[in-house]
Amino acid sequence: MSASLPYVLILYYSRHGATRAMAERLAAGVESCRGIEARLRTVPPVSTTCEAVDPEIPAEGAVYASLDDLRHCAALALGSPTRFGNMAAPLKHFIDTTSELWLGGALVDKPASAFTSTSSLHGGQETTLVSMLLPLLHHGMVYAGLPYSETEVMDTTSGGTPYGASHVAGKRSDRPLDDHERHLAQAQGRRLARLALALDAMRREAR
């Protein structure tokens, strides 16, 4: 990863791997654009046991996010499985630590989006996406969903919404992303990268 290129932060929590697979497709979409990179980050699980301590570096997958990952990103994509129609607690816990970024306006006018995975087709995909949208709006970010110019939004019989990419993982959370879901996740990453480059240029001109 080049230190000089702007990056899209793809920040996710994944329990069984489906949301992680989506994050990787978004990253592929970002990396298909010249002049910008993808940065994959995750968050640790939360525990009801106060003494529980996780390793500082996870055993596999992306490393844990820091506030600086958010502070310096050109765009942000949040990903979470659904928990009763809401984002998962580990991601919400991390977002709740971002007050200093909010106070400093670090994320104002940067593009953002969200993606999710559910066990069933009507398992709360849209409400989960909206639950991640709310803190992004409070941070002053510019939300970018999936436009219907991506015709798979209209054609899909599994995941894919105008609010953001989604995936139906099945009862055992082992159903892989289908062609429509892969395409839409990658299209979302690509759109976010293009918007990041455009808005970053606008912010630089305004200085």
Plain-language structure description:
It is a single chain. Helix 1 crosses helix 7 (179-206). Strands 1, 2, 3, 4, 5, 6 and 7 form a 7-stranded mixed β-sheet that branches. Helix 5 (125-138) links the parallel strand 5 (111-118) and strand 6 (142-143). 38% of the residues lie in helices and 17% in strands. The two termini are 27 Å apart. By secondary structure, it is an alpha/beta fold. The chain is globular, with a radius of gyration of 16 Å.
Mean of residue pLDDT? Answer: 93
Q: Percent range for helical residues?
A: 25-40%
Oligomer: single chain
The best one-word shape is: globular
Structural class: alpha/beta
List low-pLDDT spans: none
Number of helices: 7
Termini Cα gap: 27 Å
Query: Mind describing the biggest β-sheet?
Result: 7 strands, mixed
Radius of gyration, whole Å: 16 Å
The counted number of beta strands is: 7
The sequence of SSEs as H and E is EHEHEEHHEHEHEH
In what range is the share of β-strand residues? 15-25%
What distinguishing features does this structure have?
single chain, alpha/beta, 7-stranded mixed beta sheet, 7 strands, 38% helix, globular
